[in-house]
Amino acid sequence: MADDNMLDNEDTQKDKYLTFHLAGEDYGIEIKYVIEIIGIQNITDVPDMPAFIRGVINLRGKVIPVMDVRARFDLPNREYDDRTCIIVVNIDGTEVGLVVDEVSEVADIPASSVEPPPKTGKSAGGQYIQGMGKIGKAVKILLDVHKLLFSDEMKALIAEQEEGV
Amino acid sequence: MGMDIDNDQIEIIQEFVTESQDMIEQLEPQIIELGQNSDPETMNAIFRLFHSMKGSAGFLEFDHITRVAHAAENLLDLIRNGEIELVPDHVTLLCASCDFAKDALEKVDSDYTDDSMSDAADEISAKLHDAIEVAKGGGEPAAEPVAAEAPPEPEPEPEAELEAPKEEAAPTPAPSSAPPAANGELPKLEITEEMRLSFVQEGNELLQNAEQGLLAWGENPEDTESIGDIFRQIHSFKGNCGFFGFSHMEELSHQMENILDRVKSGSKLAVENPADQLLTALDILQQGVNDISDGKDGVIETLEEQLKQLQLLVPPLLGEFLVEEGVEEKAVAAAVETQKKPVGEILVEKGQASNDQVDNALKKQQQKLNDAKKETKPAARTKTPAKRQDIRVDLGKLDQLINLIGELVIAENMLIHNPDLVGMELENFNKAGQHMSKLVRELQEMAMSIRMIPVSGLFRRMIRLVHDISVKAGKKVDLELIGEETEIDKTVIETITDPLVHLLRNSLDHGLETPDERVASGKGEKGTVRLQARHEEGEVWVTVKDDGRGLNREKILEKAISKGLIEGDGSDLTDKQIYNMIFMPGFSTAAAITDISGRGVGMDVVKRNLEKIKGKIDVSSTPGKGTRIDLRIPLTLAIIDGMLVRVGTTTCIVPTLSILEAFRPTMDQITITPEGDELARVRENFFPIIRLHEILDKEPDSKELPDGILIVLEYQGSRFCLFVDEIVGQQQTVIKGLSEFIGNVAGVSGCTILGDGGVSLILDVGSLVESAESKAQDVELF
């Protein structure tokens, strides 16, 4: 029974991406990582953090860090407004909030419609791309959440923090 | 098997072959592993393999496989029971047996018989037998006592049997399959730990049942059925005691049995209901059982007294008094025999006793009864609680519980400090609120205590370590353990085990001098290492202290410079800073790498593990006098009292424990040094000022010191002032870790959730002090 459910879940989550808006582009992340989407709320600053770690929020008693995806990609800052959302993702038990401009929808993008990421990688965001998803004419940049959160760069930053203690 | 192999059998054989092959494949690496460390689990697994193979092969009449498996099994059994020691040759032999089995299985697979393996089987089983003989001959003297202490239990037998493939088809026809008992020696009736345990368990149960019965009977004396039940319980208990030879307990329970027997048969007792006295005796027995479970021998020191007490319950016989009064003994006896009427009456009737005599005797009997009643005092029951009972709980569940309680504290704060209530006069609400706060606090303390275990277990493990190292290093040492009862969170204990091992190794290896050196420097021959745990400043401190040669500042400095860990000649560094360098990776001052320590790993493990639990290390050392290392561990998940302070729009929590005082400074209290450091004068002292807004990088209401508040904080003797805009209030604070994603943040020890749902950082006074100090000295260590 439980197994069936698991399979169902796996199945229903396959090829599904949560898409969001960021600086004029559409991005997507695999739905299986997403726990929930909340509106922007008070973020408590944490000193000595890289600029893209905005601080921490209280998610029903849990304190989770919040990363500004714009800042992560070195995109220009933008005031938060009432469309700004925090997508809470859970990767291997670590919960992190991702601040995005606007959440759009859950889209079905079969693997056959996903192109490998471009090799240019000029921008800071380049290395976090998992693939380019095509829905009709529209293109969604599919992000590798793992890399987004745990890239070597991030690790180095954290290590730096720890050294400082 | 011959010719008459039908399809069914072929199927069975094939199954046997594949299963056995699988098992061998799995176990081969384990056999190798066995050569490196003889883990009993591995040993058992390998034993089971050969055992099942033997069983199945026996059933299928592959005699050669059976023979070899049997021989291998014998060898393993002897090793397992500690009768012979495992040597590399054995591993080789076992591997060879596996190889043989593989070959044989292949043959079986193709020919359905292992006849062709006869020679190989002879060879390998002969080798195995030889190995056993040789090992037995050589290892006997050492192995014997071990064997006697723990008679071998052929325990895995049934289990192995079950796993044997095809066992459902027929029982293994191998009568020799039971591993031969050690040297054929019959186990003496010695009380093993296991027997003791089962005695204690059963005893507890019996006594508990008896107690319940007694209590029920005490309430309802007419209930003779329960007496029978109690009697049976005590009787079985007596039997057990007798069997184990706990004679005192046997005697006492025997006496209880007597009394109960009397009650059962309806005889009168000195008191109407002896339940109290019996319960007392029961308690004594319970105490005895507890003693036994503690490994003592269940001696009841007050046995005589207890027996007397119980004896008093038995009413003296009228006849005895009559004899005293001068009535002939025989007559009394006869009267007793015909005892249909009261003895006295009969005697009077028969003219053998006068009425007066009988009256007197009756009076005396009555008096004696009364005396007895008085003497059998209603027994102040000193209730000995049954042995503490433990249950095993998944640590995850406990964590969840503690988290929930943390949430409860926050919810309570939200409720009681609810902004909607501001300005209202709510007397009853406040009362209810206070009551709830109290309960929540108790709940929280209880939950925290669940996770705490005393450090004694950890400390005791170190005794062996210290012993071994001191022998190896040729040093004489006394290990003092202090504060073993101090309780620390279980996970913390696990985390500091390694650091403690490293610290002790270091103390013994580098810190303590050899006996000769010690005598030469005027110290006692024996060094002392003290391991101490205690609560201090809201933390648990675990201290390792030795009276050895102390740390050598010059040597450490030299090493640090040569390794490029510091710049310059380091003359501007404090002792403390230099001593702390021993915890840097790759640092070792030992001139020679010894067997025990000196490779430079280890001390950094200490630091790393301590950081994991947000602990700190303090080193202090006096050359020639010794070194002292304090591991300072915060109480985990503590809920602390905090002072909420504000800078601009940001609030922070300062642990109340470290606050000495707070005041609004005037300009003349402030001094600015030529370097630009600000100092505040508090009475006769000057303290450095740390501006919170600089740490948090926030815009304060005002940067002018007189506009804000200075909070004097103390941490381990160093004091400093923290400049904030305002103190908002005090509150219970549940410490929550900042996400692991963020890691450690300088100056912040965690965060908490405020009544309004916002997150607030908790300041780490310790690291603020450090930054104040390094600021004051303008030295950068790293």
UniProtKB/TrEMBL annotation, chain A:
Residues 14-154 form the CheW-like domain. The keyword Cytoplasm applies. This is Chemotaxis protein CheW. One of its GO terms (cellular component) is cytosol. It is found in: Cytoplasm. The keyword rRNA-binding does not apply. It holds the Pfam family CheW. GO terms for biological process: chemotaxis; signal transduction. Keywords: Chemotaxis, Cytoplasm. InterPro entries: CheW, CheW-like_dom_sf, CheW-lke_dom.
From TrEMBL, chain B:
Its EC number is 2.7.13.3. Residues 434-637 form the Histidine kinase domain. Residues 639-774 form the CheW-like domain. Residues 141-150 have a biased composition (Low complexity). One of its GO terms (molecular function) is phosphorelay sensor kinase activity. Keywords: ATP-binding, Chemotaxis, Kinase, Nucleotide-binding, Phosphoprotein, Transferase, Two-component regulatory system. Residues 137-184, 366-388 are annotated as: Disordered. Residues 152-162 have a biased composition (Acidic residues). Involved in the transmission of sensory signals from the chemoreceptors to the flagellar motors. CheA is autophosphorylated; it can transfer its phosphate group to either CheB or CheY. This is Chemotaxis protein CheA. It comes from Malonomonas rubra DSM 5091.
